User: Fold this.
Amino acid sequence: MAGPVSRRQLLVGLGGLGASAAVAVAAGMSPITFEAAAESEHAPDAKPRQWAMVIDLRNCDGCKKCTEACQETHHLPQNFEWIKVFQVKDKHGGEYFMPRPCFQCENAPCLRVCPVAATYRVADGVVLVDQDRCIGCRMCMAACPYGARYFNYVDPPKYDNPFGHATPEFPVPQQKGTVGKCMFCVHRTAEGQLPACVEGCPMKAIYIGDLVEDVATNGDRTVRLSTFLKENDAFRYKEELGTGPRVYYIAGHGQLLDF
Assistant:
């Protein structure tokens, strides 16, 4: 662990993040179950989560398993990469891989330009798209500085939604003529599961975190979020635009990895 994390912070703060039992046992605690975590999320006095994501670029090897897991979970066509992995060159000529989900911006340009309020933010800070309201004007796509939205030009792969129909929280199948994007798998976190990209990353480079309780996990490791960001010189992509992105990156400046 990166700094001490109390029992209350793990049991209540981690919520549905799915920390492994091994982490809890190593800290001298009882194992955490998805079921107990999900119940704490719905407690009457529970504060809304404020979801964030951390991507440790030191660990990303560009395998795109996060992309594949997302596509499988949301039944997306192959050209829809809600978390897209870029190969980037730095100013010294070195190369690294950079996964790009939706940044769930606190000052989201896409939200402000939607003429029919089809794009909206929920209490936990995640920006969703109501495809029943979306008119396909694509103004949100033009406004997004991260290129994180996709337009459904054709009918998506067929899928029988277990809820009977697609919802903003689980927009499967996508609707032709509307816009879709990453939504931090809120249908999974609400049930005490990790987002598909976090669970699918074999390098454990992606963390889901809660800004309120200051905790994050990649499924194997649980950290104090603020300490983890500070000690590893985390940054936010295009932060200078004032969008307030909730995705943090760790490029690393000589810190040792934990393996």
About this structure: The CA atoms of residues 39 and 209 lie 18 Å apart. The two ends are 13 Å apart (CA to CA).
